[in-house]
């Protein structure tokens, strides 16, 4: 015969009293210590906040400058690519003799070239 073991009976909350006591002690210490630090915090909070805001403004301005520089570089790159593309379209390269590489440009209706 096998003996069936019953699961151990647990107490309602073994760590609950310890957590409650820790919370009460922490609250009591916080309540006693806070008035000692509050005047110093109140005096220094405004200048610290002002410095933080100034740093944020400086970071924002610097990011705007960087974005403008990136935009300028992108614009320059686009202008260079466009100039190269236009140059390639004006003067066909060596491969233009092959039938598949010819590019036909249509300008107007073609009457202008017929009358010339």
Give the class from helix and strand content and strand pairing.
Answer: mainly alpha
SSE string, helices as H and strands as E: HH
Q: Please give the largest β-sheet.
A: none
Q: What is the number of E strands?
A: 0
What is the CA-atom radius of gyration, in angstroms?
40 Å
Provide a count of the helices: 2
Q: What would the average pLDDT be, to the nearest integer?
A: 80
Query: Quaternary arrangement of the chains shown?
Result: single chain
**Helical fraction:** 55-70%
How much strand content do the residues show?
under 5%
* Overall geometry: elongated
The span between the termini is 118 Å
Any overview of this molecule?
- The structure is a single chain.
- The protein has 116 residues and is mainly alpha-helical.
- It has a domain of 71 residues.
- 69% of the residues lie in helices and 0% in strands.
Break the fold down into its secondary structure elements and pairings:
Layout: H1 16-90, H2 111-115
Please summarize what this structure is:
With about 120 residues, this protein is mainly α. About 70% of the residues lie in helices and about 0% in strands.
List keywords for this structure.
2 helices; 116 residues; mainly alpha
């Amino acid at each position: 015969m096998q003996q069936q073991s019953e699961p151990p009976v647990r107490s309602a909350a073994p760590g609950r009293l310890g957590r409650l006591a820790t919370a009460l002690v922490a609250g009591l210490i916080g309540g006693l210590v806070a008035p000692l630090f509050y005047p110093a915090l109140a005096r220094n909070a405004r200048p610290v906040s002002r410095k933080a805001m100034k740093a944020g403004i400086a970071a924002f301005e610097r990011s705007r400058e960087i974005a403008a520089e990136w935009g300028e570089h992108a614009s320059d790159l686009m202008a260079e690519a466009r100039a190269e593309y236009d140059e390639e379209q004006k003067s066909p390269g060596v491969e233009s003799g092959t039938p598949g590489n010819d590019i036909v440009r249509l300008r107007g209706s073609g009457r202008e070239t017929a009358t010339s």
